[in-house]
Specification:
The protein has 6 helices and 6 strands. It is an alpha/beta fold and 148 residues long. The protein has a domain of 90 residues: Ribosomal Protein L13p, Chain: A (Alpha-Beta Complex). It is globular and about 60 Å long.
Length: 148
């Protein structure tokens, strides 16, 4: 390697220009597999120009969230907690009940836990779009299907 060769870093404008829209079908796929693939695509780890401190990832649309597979006894044993911000306001629900009432929340919670816990992670999370059924309003962006 010559001394004059420099590693070129990606500018923010170039990262924004290279964004794509990707769609993941969660039908009969395990929840963790879908979530890890979505988190990796959101961060941009599949790109050669990946930079840990920049948003180099793509937009990810997850469809059929209601048909995601929970292996083992996770439907009744896996528990989600949330707090109403009032004293004694902890609310608990199982993964099975959550899938029936709000299936998008299952995937969103799993992916959010896999993203960085800082400003970058919050910005990356806004690029995740999850829908319980097969229909989504992002057909104008021509999302490309992704294998899980």
């Amino acid at each position: 390697m010559k001394l004059t060769e420099q590693t070129k870093s990606l500018s923010h404008e170039e990262a924004l220009r290279n964004r794509r829209w990707l769609v993941i079908d969660a039908t009969d796929r395990p929840l963790g597999r879908v979530a890890t693939r979505a988190a990796s695509l959101l961060r941009g780890k599949h790109r050669p120009e990946f930079t840990p401190n920049q948003d180099t990832g793509d937009f990810v649309v997850v469809i059929n969230a209601a048909k995601v597979k929970l292996t083992g006894a996770k439907g009744s044993d896996k528990v989600y907690h949330r707090h109403t911000e009032y004293p004694g306001g902890i609310r608990t629900t199982t993964a099975g009940k959550l899938r029936e009432s709000r299936p998008e929340r299952l995937i969103e919670t799993a992916v959010r836990g896999m993203l960085p816990k800082n400003r970058l992670g919050r910005r990356l999370f806004t690029k995740l779009k999850v829908y319980g059924g097969a229909d989504h309003p992002h057909s104008a962006q021509r999302p490309e299907p992704v294998k899980v």
